[in-house]
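Design a sequence for this backbone.
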């Protein structure tokens, strides 16, 4: 049986980071649930290319701003790889708010 990835580890790391900074004393899973964060929908190759082209940048510039390789951006745009995790979140932010969020 194949294991699926869980976002719990990432959420737990975020919570620990917030606690470490002293911003809050304790954050519970109940607190996280109350945020009701929207799920991040996957993006297809055409959507990713459209995001980049709408930003009027080359694959090289886009890759640099997203802190990834040109090869990765190329593979996203032809469907050989799919962005996940932080990269997927960054793509959604760029789609919604423009490159200024990562520049």
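Sequence:
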């Amino acid at each position: 049986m194949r294991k699926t990835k869980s976002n719990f580890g990432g959420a737990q790391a975020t919570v620990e980071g917030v606690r470490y900074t002293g911003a809050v004393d304790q954050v519970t899973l109940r607190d996280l649930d109350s945020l009701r964060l929207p799920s991040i929908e996957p993006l297809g190759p055409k959507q990713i290319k459209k995001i980049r082209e709408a930003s009027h940048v080359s694959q090289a510039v886009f890759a640099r701003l997203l802190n990834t390789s040109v090869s990765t951006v190329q593979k996203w745009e032809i469907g050989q790889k799919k962005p996940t995790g932080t990269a997927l979140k960054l793509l959604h932010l760029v789609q919604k708010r423009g490159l200024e969020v990562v520049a």
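The domain at 45-101 is CATH 1.10.260 (434 Repressor (Amino-terminal Domain)).
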